[in-house]
Write the structure tokens for this entry.
Amino acid sequence: SQQGEEDPQALSIQEGENATMNCSYKTSINNLQWYRQNSGRGLVHLILIRSNEREKHSGRLRVTLDTSKKSSSLLITASRAADTASYFCATAIYGNKLVFGAGTILRVKS
Amino acid sequence: NAGVMQNPRHLVRRRGQEARLRCSPMKGHSHVYWYRQLPEEGLKFMVYLQKENIIDESGMPKERFSAEFPKEGPSILRIQQVVRGDSAAYFCASSEVTRAAGANVLIFGAGSRLTVL
């Protein structure tokens, strides 16, 4: 079974709106990462949040982590058409192997 | 400073043939990971290697699949006697050595798309 489960599976919004994606995981983690994948391409790392952090920002991205609920959220503010992509959370159960969730497909309409 | 290079980008094989996928990690990276992605799905971990060592192959099918990362040259994912179900995108990623578990940021290649006829 997946370590990370993203929610929703798909999200469609208008340009300028905010997009929120959630990720739940099952076991204790040291860190959680978010990646983006444009259609037909490899994944690109967006942000890493450590287990002792609750919130992190990077440009228009805001990530939160709630270890008590074993969940994380990725917020993209003022979305653009170029943000259209699939977004994945990833956790390391042990060692350095990252396990990815099934992803959220984000479509930003212009 | 090239990123992670994968080749071929597209590979077509008939059932029963062999597929070899290559991955050159980013310069300075000593860890390589292989993932498989089926259409509309997430990435499934296959194997994690360091130079000349397989660290974790818990995601590799027991038969027909093998991986190596020799001292010299790229990492190779080899699929023998391919079947239609092997059709997928295979992504390679690399990372540098870090101390904290799970703290490795993976740099992904563009993927190799295998189609089995």
